Amino acid sequence: MPHEITNHSAVLDAIRRTDIISELVEETDGKFKYELDLEVIAYGRNYTGKKVGPYAHLLVYEAGEEIIRQGDWGGNTFFFGIEGDLDVYVKDQTGRQKWVDVQKPGKSFGEMSVLAGMPRTATIVVPEGGRATVLEVERPALRLLRKLPKFGQALDQVYRNNGLRRTVDDVLDVLDAPLSSELAQKLSALAQFKIYSKHQVLFRAGEPIT
Hints:
By secondary structure, this protein is α+β, with helices and mostly antiparallel strands. The protein contains 6 helices and 13 strands.
């Protein structure tokens, strides 16, 4: 089980050290630019006698501990790596866990479960002999963090990249052609994954095909 660091200064320092959310602790004339949002996320705030937040928790995991597990429902939390490398595993076709990558500090992970309402797509574990500190963030903070320009852009990019990858995988599943990384790369290079608002016109009858 992870150990939580509840010291407020440590939580603020973790946010400050994480580039894509460091704007949350920016100061102007000695005051936090996003003071109310920071208070709710990091400390919690009372609204008409009801406590709201905190939505961020600084956690320390020991060697061998799992932070997220592939296939689990994780629609309520995502994470930022603060200290320590993390091993990333995915299941192969036989169901065995296969090491695929190292998650470096400063990056987010697990956000697609929150954005798309889907199970975790990988298992992330602290390596043997290691230790890792992560910032766990609850779903309600996502709306507040999206106000930060750098994080908002990064989140949209993650959503588009993962959405494109999942869509290409779905297309390949229904094709008669054999699945290959080369075909997936070609489709990914040709396609764009875009999000359209309600009632937006994609194309009109009679217009030339672009």
